[in-house]
Amino acid sequence: MALSPSRTVAELKELRELTGDSEGAQRVAWTETWSTARKWLDKKVSELPVEKTCDAAGNQWFTLPGDSERALLIGGHIDSVPNGGWLDGALNVMAGVEVLRRIAADGTPPVTVRLVNWADEEGARFGRSLFGSSAAAGSMADQDELRGRRDADGVSLPEAIARFDVDLATALEAKAELASAAAYLELHIEQGPVLESLGLPLGVVLGTFGVERHQVTFRGQAAHAGSTPMDKRRDALAGAARLELEIREIAKRAGEGAVCTMGGVVTRPGIVTSVVETAECLLDQRHLDATKLAEMLSNAEAASRRFAEEESIDVEWERIWNIEPILFDEALIELADEAVREVAGSSHRLPSGPLHDAAEVARAGVPTVMLFVQSLRGLSHTKLEDTEEEHLELSVQALDRLADKAMAQVAAG
Amino acid sequence: MALSPSRTVAELKELRELTGDSEGAQRVAWTETWSTARKWLDKKVSELPVEKTCDAAGNQWFTLPGDSERALLIGGHIDSVPNGGWLDGALNVMAGVEVLRRIAADGTPPVTVRLVNWADEEGARFGRSLFGSSAAAGSMADQDELRGRRDADGVSLPEAIARFDVDLATALEAKAELASAAAYLELHIEQGPVLESLGLPLGVVLGTFGVERHQVTFRGQAAHAGSTPMDKRRDALAGAARLELEIREIAKRAGEGAVCTMGGVVTRPGIVTSVVETAECLLDQRHLDATKLAEMLSNAEAASRRFAEEESIDVEWERIWNIEPILFDEALIELADEAVREVAGSSHRLPSGPLHDAAEVARAGVPTVMLFVQSLRGLSHTKLEDTEEEHLELSVQALDRLADKAMAQVAAG
Questions:
Q1: Which of B16, B47, B241, B371 would you call most buried, defined as having the most Cβ atoms within 10 angstroms of its Cβ?
Q2: Which of B1, B181, B256, B244 has the alpha carbon at shortest distance from B103?
């Protein structure tokens, strides 16, 4: 039986009919619709000679035994955000199903091949993303905090996951699943505009960005807009404006892949008749290189202090969240590049802005790589999310080629 | 009987005790507390040979007849904002009372002298400032709209003013009061930092600023902060930031007295993970010179369009409100300057950012001038509003001198 990329597209449409509505995909983790999708997936692989298991964190595993117990993993997530797109997560899983079919049809593979459907990548219901993969990676450390989480209807996280036989007390037992893992592959839509702007269907992901996220608050003095001369003002908004423009220069100096975003400013008192007293800025900085990320942060801090001094205002930084960059495996990146070039003619290497389950697996020490397929207009987390079918089919072919190359490499030891 | 500036300070404190509380002055127009203040004022002038009247707009008049019917007016307002200061408005009225006492003690003046306590300068309860003075000036034109206004408790404006025998249908009959007016004087706290920064107690006001008030909306494209490269962004906040910095240069180029303020920015979606799609900016521009004000506006518009083009975003301007500059009388400005120099040694001429009843009187064609007395820290509309007592006393003296000079000028024809 040959690989059928068009079947993957057809199955994704079938899943969309089954679990979506006029507002988009509704496969939010730990819900009935998600359960429907998981059962549907289970049926899709029922004709294959695979062992079906569910681990302690709710991750679904489909294991095709090979000559060696060392395992090549292919992963994805069938859960979506509410009113989500048809491809984010599900493409990865269904392309994995198709590759598993092709490998199984070719007879016993040299190494064990396992498809994993990670539980709750999106964190849409309880605000905790990468649930299943972080449990399997052993990096989940916020169980105590998660016990108190409730959804918008007041249902607690422990209650919701118990319906799927998952318990925070034992979720980390999922770590056992990665013991035999020798490589991990994940395909995903890009969720950004880079491949589309380059006119390329496919790219190879170098890793996921490190992120530094801060609230930067400038404090000046409210003063009457009519009676306060320009040179007597202590305008907090001036600090925010100068930082907004400076972070673009900071990103430029930090080289390719660097991004800095001021995602919002809240001004107080925020009325037309007063100079702004406080300006609270949300700052997000990302880089694949930890040293350069640290440099970007310290450059932004230094700039903000200089602006504050020059404007006679104060500035205060408060970290909201941060994560180190996670680099993918160099050898697998080379194989992925080969696979993409064979299928699409040319390839492009790019970092991933969003996090993915692959980042958790890589942090756990498993050699990892991801493929990106072009997103139209860079849109995701909306029903408008889309990718040309031709590109979807190329992505299934590329994952298949990559799986073959990775199996050979794992088998070679 | 000699002028007693210290009595004015004592009476202001008496009024504060009578009509204020721990949060500040509570003499909001059309309330019981305001009524208490008006009756108290009435008593204060009861020993003077003045005619007491109330016009069709609720303004209180105290008329000291002179040899000529041509009248010198001295004005102020005893109403305050809620939790207001002890001086804003009341200083003008009580200094006027003291000047009236001194003139009356000197015998029949050469011209008629009238003290007016304008009704509802602040507009605190119904959002309509300069109520009484705009009726007397004949510029009130929003009676139909005012009929629908209600306060926070649902009481309508017509209902509230009816308790003071004022009716929107007849309020403009107050115009008759200005028929004989030959000059108008008003003393006020500066409500800004200029005199304090110059170390001067008193200043002469050149007029009230023209104001151009706009909402400027920049529209770009929301995009993922992690997956959208810097050169692919259409960041609405960049337009807002550049305009915020540019309006300072525009004000600088427009010369002394020009002010431009971005009082607030609202960013949407306003989250840390997204480039800003829309930035709504509140822009306030003021100048004493109508031509320069128009130039400042057109410079800001042109700059915003240039920024929009360079940032690949859109920009839209919507006027919120505007008013022409109102210039005070040149001859009275000279007299006021003399009076201030005689009392305080040196004077300073400055525009007024806030509007005042004097602006309405000037618009009606009555030669007008204002005196400013220093405000500590520029604060007003708060219980923290204050002025050194020594400066308050100097301000009463300066108003007295100015009244004498103005009477002589009016008498001379």
A1: B241
A2: B1
Closest partner residue to B229 (CB to CB) among A194, A284, A354 is: A194
Q: Could you tell me if A248 and A300 are in contact, meaning their C-beta atoms sit under 8 angstroms apart?
A: no
The DSSP 8-state label assigned to residue A175 in this structure reads: G
Where do we find the tokens 């309006």? B247
Question: Chain A interface, mutation test: which of B188, B249, B272, most A Cβ atoms within 10 Å?
Answer: B272
Closest C-alpha to A109, from A74, A70, A48, A67: A67
Of B321, B306, B243, B320, nearest to B279 by C-alpha is: B243
The interface residues of chain B toward chain A in range 261-300, judged by CB-CB distance below 8 A, are 261-267, 269-276, 282-284, 286
Tell me if chain A has a CB within 8 Å of the CB of B248.
yes
* Amino acid sitting at position A231: D
Q: Does domain B210-323 have CATH number 3.30.70.360?
A: yes
Nearest-CB residue to B224 (from A211, A229, A353)? A353
Average pLDDT over residues B71-86: 96
Give A-chain residues touching B252 at CB under 8 angstroms. Answer: 230
Backbone angles phi, psi at A281, to 5 degrees: -110, 135
Give how far Cα B1 sits from Cα of B6, B8, B41, B97, B100, Å: 14, 14, 20, 13, 11
Which of A:13-42 have CB within 8 Å of B?
A: none
CB contact under 8 A, A227 and B194: yes
The model's pTM is 0.83
What would the pLDDT profile of B223-263 be if each residue is shown by its tens digit?
Answer: 888 889 999 999 999 999 999 999 999 999 999 889 999 99
A172 neighbors A55 (Cβ within 8 angstroms): no
Domain positions in chain B are 5-208+325-412, 210-323
How far out from the chain centre does Cα A115 lie? 18
Q: What is the pLDDT of residues A112-129, one digit of tens each?
A: 999 999 999 999 999 889
Identify all chain B residues contacting A193, using CB atoms and an 8 Å cutoff.
223, 227-229, 232
Q: If we measure between CA atoms, which residue out of A371, A412, A407 comes closest to residue A106? A: A407
Phi-psi region for residue B308, left (φ > 0), alpha (ψ -120 to 50) or beta? alpha
CATH code: domain A5-208+325-412 is 3.40.630.10
CB contact under 8 A, B226 and A209: yes
- Cβ under 8 Å to B: A residues 322-361: 352-354
Nearest CA in chain B to A380: B224
Of A227, A241, A352, the CB nearest to B354: A227
Cα–Cα distances (Å) from B209 to A202, B39, B351, in that order, read 61, 34, 7
Residue B34: per-residue pLDDT: 98
pLDDT at B127: 87
* Residue B369 half-sphere exposure toward CB, CA atoms < 13 A: 27
A327: β partners: A207
